[in-house]
Specification:
The chain is α/β, with parallel strands linked by helices. Helices cover about 25% and strands about 30% of the residues. A hairpin with a 5-residue loop joins strand 6 and strand 7.
Length: about 140
């Protein structure tokens, strides 16, 4: 757990998350609107040397980025998903099975579709505007 994290420390947290879960590729994010899910994912992508501009895929639902060594990174936002069928039609299993990093925002909207093994990242905003970030592997 990372407690009382200021936004300027997120790059350090991103390094620690990637280092703590070297074999994991699916990272599911929980947190209220404005908690910093996209901001942390931008830092994770920076750590992975993504060469594209990282933006929230709220309307596209899935953004695909490339790293400097031509590896794919998928960034998904399920905020606007209306039902599980809509999410299943995206072919999520193909993304999860790709062995590419998958960063999933609003994971609570697709909980039953998540793979058996993923890293759960919970972000909570504190009264002083710092964040508490809890990270643990779900198996």
């Amino acid at each position: 757990m990372f407690d009382r994290v200021s936004l300027d420390k997120l790059v350090d947290i991103a390094h620690k998350i990637i280092q703590a879960f070297p074999q994991s590729r699916v990272f599911a994010f929980w947190g209220e609107m404005g908690a910093g899910k996209t901001t942390l994912i931008k830092q994770l992508c920076s750590v992975l040397n993504v060469t594209h501009t990282v933006n929230s895929p709220t309307f596209a639902i899935i953004n695909e980025y490339l790293t400097q060594d031509n590896q794919k990174v998928f960034h998904c936002d399920f905020y606007r998903i209306k039902n599980l069928n809509e999410a299943m039609d995206l072919g999520l299993d193909d993304y999860f099975d790709s062995h590419c990093y998958c960063f999933l925002e609003w994971s609570e909207n697709i909980t039953s579709l998540l793979p058996d093994h993923f890293v759960r990242v919970e972000i909570t905003t504190n009264a002083d505007l710092t964040r508490t970030i809890q990270v643990h592997k779900k198996v």
